[in-house]
Amino acid sequence: MTDSTLTHRDHRVAFLLAIGRPPTEAGRAVGYGKKRLSNLHLNPTFVALIEQYRQEFFTQTAHTLNERLLADAPTTLKRLQELRDQRDDLKVALGASAHLFDRQVPKRTHHDEERTVRIIFSAEERAACKEIEAEAEALDVEEVPQ
Fold first, then answer.
1. Exposed, middle or buried: residue 14 (CB in 10 Å: 0-12, 13-18, 19+)?
2. Are 38 and 46 in contact (CB under 8 A)?
3. In the chain, what are the domain boundaries?
4. Of the candidates 44, 37, 42, the residue with the CA atom closest to the CA atom of residue 10
C-alpha cells in the first residue's frame, strides 16, 4: 500500500491519531473498525503519515503559541507593572512584584543528597596521617568541630 493507495479517510485517521485522539475515536470518526485500524498500523506509509502530521501539527501549534505569547507579552507586562505600582491592595501588588521578579531572576533550586565517600590511603599515607595526629596531640591542638 503506497501513499497513493491511502484514502482520504486513511489520511483523516492518521491526522486524528497524530493530534492525540485515541484509535477507537479516530476509527469511529471515519467508520473504521479495529481490524482496519490494526491493518493500517502495519503499513509503513501510514505510520510515516502519522509522524508527518504530528510534526506539522507540532510546528504549527508551537509557532501559533509563540506568536500569541510574543503579542501578549507587552500588554501582560504592562498590566503586571500597573498592579505592582497600585496602592489599593498590597497583596496584589506583592503578587505582581513576585511575578515580575520571577521573570527577571531564574528560580534557584536546592537539592540535598547524601553520599558515602570512601577514601583509600596507601600504607605510606596512613603512616603520614598517624604522624600528623601524634604531632597534633603533642601540641594539644583542638579538633575542629564538624
1. buried
2. no
3. 3-104
4. 37
